[in-house]
Design a protein that fits this description.
mainly alpha; 0% strand
Length: 71
């Protein structure tokens, strides 16, 4: 579905004046992009950054709101 609409979105962005490398689009549904995500996840898992716990804690490195939920 997304592949079919990429031309429509590109033309809309051009009309809005968005500056981009239109000849080399950044498509997140391509095999190369997805394979890169899997490789990054694997590296994070192997170094201990990913683990199964009781519940997720969502927070940014600079924010404290995720950590506050633990209190």
């Amino acid at each position: 579905q997304a592949y079919r609409y990429r031309h429509i979105q590109r033309e809309g962005f051009k009309r809005l004046g968005v500056n981009a490398d239109w000849d080399h689009p950044y498509l997140t549904f391509t095999h190369d992009y997805e394979a890169g995500n899997v490789e990054i996840f694997k590296a994070m898992y192997l170094n201990g950054s990913v683990y199964r716990g009781r519940k997720p804690i969502h927070c940014a490195r600079t924010a404290t709101d995720g950590i506050d939920k633990l209190d």
